[in-house]
Amino acid sequence: MQTGWDKHLQGFPGYYDLGRALSIVKRPVTAEELAANVRRLIRKDDVVWLGGNPLAFPLEWPAHAEDPDNPYWRGLGRPGTQAEYLRSIIALAGMDDMRTVGDLLEVMVGLGLFVRLPHRTPPVLVPNAVPGMVWEVADIPEETRQSYRVTIGYADFSRVAEDIENLLTWAPKGQITATARQLGVRLATDPHDIIGALDLLAVLGKLADTPYPQDLDPEELLAHPLHIQQRTRPEWAPRDDVEPGP
């Protein structure tokens, strides 16, 4: 399941190469070995002056990060400059600056995207399997948050959302009352995916209202009756005021 971090960290120095390095090692790894893979992917192997220490390998910030008219940054629709964005993420991770691959790894730990296992000798890093949604950690404008939710929803829940839409279209008055577990059985899918699909439909404005309370524990939510209503029914949907024929 996506959490929005990939989209939020788009354009963050070294993040893309870090993801590629993780796909190579595929196991708990020391910071030094992970940094060496990042350095290799960036294709800058002349680090004699650094004493061969991959953690000290410098990261290049975007050339026009300070430019408020940077077309790349404007194209992403984000406020301020790219440099301001980068500094806000670094500060969020509890760091003052980020200039090396070693700094990048510390930022990832500070954001909760990586976990350090100190009981191993030497200590190793692993990706956090449950880092939480990006808006639970970062201060994100509501419009941006909605955009992230749509991206995540389409990536993870579009098929289930389409199935729920079909159920609503054929249900009397476009309404269904059921728990996520019951809908999961009906649609042969994980009930957690039902919640994700409903969130996508709500963000897209296809439901009359968010069909579940926001303050329930995730496991309680699976057993909570959901009152789901289609906002606008298709013209071809069955009419509720017409009695079925003989």
How is this structure best described in words?
With 246 residues, this protein is mainly alpha-helical. It folds into 2 domains: 5-130, no CATH class; 142-229. 44% of the residues lie in helices and 7% in strands. It has 10 helices and 4 strands; from the N terminus they run ααααααββαβαααβ. The chain has helices at residues 5-8, 15-25, 31-42, 71-75, 82-92, 101-110, 142-170, 180-187, 191-203, 218-223, and strands at 114-117, 124-127, 175-178, 226-229. It has a two-stranded antiparallel ribbon with strand order 1-2. The chain has a two-stranded antiparallel sheet with strand order 3-4. Helix 2 (15-25) crosses helix 3 and helix 8 packs across helix 9 (191-203). The longest helix has 29 residues, at 142-170. The chain is elongated and about 75 Å long. The N and C termini lie far apart (48 Å). The model has no long low-confidence stretch (mean pLDDT 86).
Q: In terms of topology, how is this protein built?
A:
Layout: H1 5-8, H2 15-25, H3 31-42, H4 71-75, H5 82-92, H6 101-110, E1 114-117, E2 124-127, H7 142-170, E3 175-178, H8 180-187, H9 191-203, H10 218-223, E4 226-229
Antiparallel strand pairs: 1-2, 3-4
Low-confidence segments, given as residue ranges, are none
Biggest sheet architecture: 2 strands, antiparallel
Task: Compute the CA-based radius of gyration.
Answer: 23 Å
Please count the helical segments.
10
- Strand pairing plus helix content: what structural class? mainly alpha
Shape summary: elongated
Could you tell me how far the N terminus lies from the C terminus, measured between alpha carbons in angstroms?
A: 48 Å
The largest beta-sheet arranges its strands as 1-2
Mean of pLDDT: 86
* Relative strand content: 5-15%
Summed up, the domain count is: 2
Instruction: Give the helices and strands as they follow along the chain.
Output: HHHHHHEEHEHHHE
Total number of beta strands? 4
